[in-house]
Amino acid sequence: MIAYINGEVAEITEQAIILETNGLGYEVICPNPYRFQAQVGNKQKIYTYHHVREDAQILYGFQNQDEKALFAQILNVSGIGPKGALAVLATTTVQDFVVAIEQEDEKFLTSFPGVGKKTARQMILDLKGKLPFEYQAENIVQQEEGIPGSNQALTEAIEALKALGYSEKEINHIKPVLTKEKSDTADTYIRKGLALLMK
Predict the structure, then answer these.
(1) How far apart (Å, rounded) are the C-alpha atoms in residues 17 and 9?
(2) Structural domain count of the chain
């Protein structure tokens, strides 16, 4: 199995990045390929999950080991395939997902594309107490103490930008910048997003 690829980011598409190493270009499907926009032409280490089907062999790529580990765990949930697991990682952080599972936050889980109440319950059933991340307990304490997470606000802002007519490609291009804002209000993300999109 291919555990990771250390190569030059040669190209970015809507679904994947092309990593070139030793004269070979590997197509690696990522949750949000535009995260790597700043790395085009530079070397980057991508942690990969080699998914083998009867009709295809596909490489999925992640920025760190935690993302890769969570992707593999989500694939173990009945009814969730690679596309669904990628959608989760494209729209939230590992930490926020773990908190949602441990606190049985169905509302958060059903915010992901293709995840209804039945699938959300299945995720909780299959994953609660089984996610091997050291920081989950600390994050759960923070959530219980009322420290707001930024993910819901960011999700709302992205939906608002889509409603204003901006394409998913345009929004994905600025999403890495928006995630650094660390705001708990959608308005802040919307104002920042519009400023970036109008440049």
Answers:
(1) 7
(2) 3
